[in-house]
Fold this protein.
Amino acid sequence: MVKQIIRDRFFLRQKSEEATEKDREIITDLCDTLTANEDRCIGMAANMIGKLKRIIVVALPFGPMVMINPEILVKSEPYEAEEGCLSLDGVRKTTRYKKIVVRYQDENFKDTLQEFSGMVAQTIQHECDHLDGVII
């Protein structure tokens, strides 16, 4: 189900809790909401739809990539970026990394370790910040 985007900064600054298999409905809602906003959004965290769970989705050409309980283990090649967010007005500068290694569970809760680069890596970093209550 498509959910309303949360813009309350107090709520967004709260840290998210580990997700479990009981949170499957959040995954569906997150993917539906990302798809509904695909013209202006390439990633989304569960807190953006009102759920303080460690789940993010990233738009890829073949459909949304689900990451449950993501943890960025390695960051390399820092650079300055400007980012916007559906939960905030305008754009802000932030430091991101060109390459990252992430440990997460996929949509089937299978443990995964994967390297990302470019815009996908930047999007994952932005969404993981959301999970930690960091607002750029």
Remarks:
- Residues 14 and 69 are 16 Å apart (CA to CA).
- The first helix runs from residue 9 to 12.
- The chain has a mean pLDDT of 96.
